[in-house]
Every structure is written in C-alpha cells, then in structure tokens.
Write a structure and sequence with these properties.
With 170 residues, this protein is mostly helical. The protein has one domain (3-169). Helices cover 72% and strands 0% of the residues. Helix 1 (3-32) packs across helix 4 (77-105) and helix 1 (3-32) packs antiparallel against helix 6 (143-169). The mean pLDDT is 87.
C-alpha cells in the first residue's frame, strides 16, 4: 500500500472514531440539558440530537432518503435505521481521510483537531446543510443549538486527530 493510501486509511479509521465520539457527545449534551433524547430511526448513532429537538427532522435521514431516491427507492423506517448512520459514518470517515492526507502533506506544528472540528462545523452544519435543504437556515437556530453542534464537532476533530496520530505511527 502506498504512503498516501495508508495515510488516507488511517484518517478514515480516525474519522470513524471521531464520528462515534461526536454521537456520544451529542447524546450527553442532550441528557445534561435535561432533554429527552430524540427518537430518530437511527437511534443514538445519528449525532443530530440538537436538530431533531429544534427542527423535528434529521439531516442524516434526509440525506439517506435523497441518496436512495437517486435509484428510485423510498427507504422504510427500518431501512432508514440502518442507512442513516452509514451515511453519517461514511461522511466522517471521508472527512477523516482527506484531513489525514492534508495534515501529512503540510508543514508546521501538529494540529489539535479543533481546527478540523471548527472548520467542519462551519462548512457542513452552518453552510452546506441549509443550502442543501438538510436543515433550516442557521439564522433560525437558537444559540444553544449552535453551541451544541460546535462542541460536538470539536469532539469529532480532537478525537479524529488523536486517533490519526496513533494510526499513522502503526
């Protein structure tokens, strides 16, 4: 396996770990805030607690349905329970792979992962999701929901970076 592929694979594994940690962070925030965790098709593996509580929808489920509709399929709730987490974890793995290649090629101090988390929050949650119709406008979100999402993305970034460091050394 060449160096770039190895770096990408390490990043993908790190992105999966970061996504899992992000899901846990979302759920812990909801529980700490005294909110009942939402009842999405994907259960606790979707990392969209803040969105479900505020918007009564879940971007991972919307993305899964959109992808399925490309091939003319409408997912049932049971199928959605399996596919929505796959969409979310696949995105996290892909971001981790690209990030790992970027970090491997850049010069300078090792990142903390906060940059990754903050950048991903801004580009994905704050800009892309509303533009793609996967969430309401960010202007309609409460400050607490912005903060919950940002904190979860920081968790993603830090865990992804820490796991990436270990994985590239292995």
């Amino acid at each position: 396996m060449n160096s770039t592929m190895r770096t990408a694979c390490a990043g993908a594994v790190a992105g999966l770990a970061g996504t899992f940690a992000m899901n846990v962070a979302q759920r812990l925030w909801s529980l700490a805030a005294g909110d009942r965790p939402p009842e999405s098709a994907a259960g606790p593996h979707d990392a969209r607690d803040w969105q479900e509580r505020e918007e009564a929808k879940n971007s991972n489920e919307l993305a899964a349905q959109a992808l399925a509709s490309v091939v003319g399929i409408r997912l049932t709730d049971r199928q959605l329970a399996a596919v929505a987490p796959v969409v979310h974890f696949s995105f996290g793995a892909a971001v981790g792979a690209v990030y790992s290649i970027y970090v491997d090629r850049r010069r300078g101090d090792a990142p903390s992962g906060l940059e990754l988390g903050g950048g991903l929050w801004l580009t994905a949650d704050e800009i892309a999701m509303p533009v793609l119709g996967l969430s309401r406008s960010t202007l309609q979100r409460s400050p607490e929901k912005h903060l919950q999402s940002l904190a979860a993305h920081f968790v993603y970034g830090v865990v992804t970076e820490q796991v990436r460091r270990v994985a590239v050394r292995s």
